Amino acid sequence: MTHLDLINSRRSIRKYTEKPIPEEMIHSLLEAAMMAPSAGNAQPWQFVVVTENALLKKASKIHPYVTMAASAQLGILVCGDLSKEKYPGFWVQDCAAAMQNMLLAAHALGLGAVWTGIYPMEDRVATTAKLFNLPESVIPLGFAPLGWPNQHPQSATRYREDRVHYNTY
């Protein structure tokens, strides 16, 4: 599969089998995430890897769009560490790039994943920070439930000519 095929065929997966994810795959996902670009190469991210079923079930209650975490084999919380920023405020972009790298790596490895948003919703941030015992300087951006896919949605192009502007709007 080419890089463009990988990008164009990745879909959000919310149903998983019970097959466990090998530790070396988890390492590959995190390594891909940490290869993301970051402002000033600050790499202001922290990752919480969730493998305990009971904690995944608790995570599934963070907000209504993360319920699939209860049936996932793994969850990875992507966080911005404000103490590691070189350029304040850019942690959101940096961590979003890390999350996208991780989702693409999951797809390349045959895993299914979905990005569930936490930041900037204050209630989600507070609930997540408490559940995962995050230090004050660490802000949760998003939680990705992962597993071997038990669904196979098809991809269609999302290219929209009406959203493209050359040189000026």
From TrEMBL:
Its EC number is 1.-.-.-. It is an enzyme of class 1 (oxidoreductase). Residues 7-59, 82-148 form the Nitroreductase domain. Gene3D superfamilies: NADH Oxidase. Keywords: Flavoprotein, FMN, Oxidoreductase. GO terms for molecular function: oxidoreductase activity. InterPro entries: Nitroreductase (IPR029479), Nitroreductase-like (IPR000415), Nitroreductase/BluB (IPR050627). SUPFAM superfamilies: FMN-dependent nitroreductase-like. CDD domains: nitroreductase. This is Putative NADH dehydrogenase/NAD(P)H nitroreductase. It comes from Pseudodesulfovibrio piezophilus (strain DSM 21447 / JCM 15486 / C1TLV30).
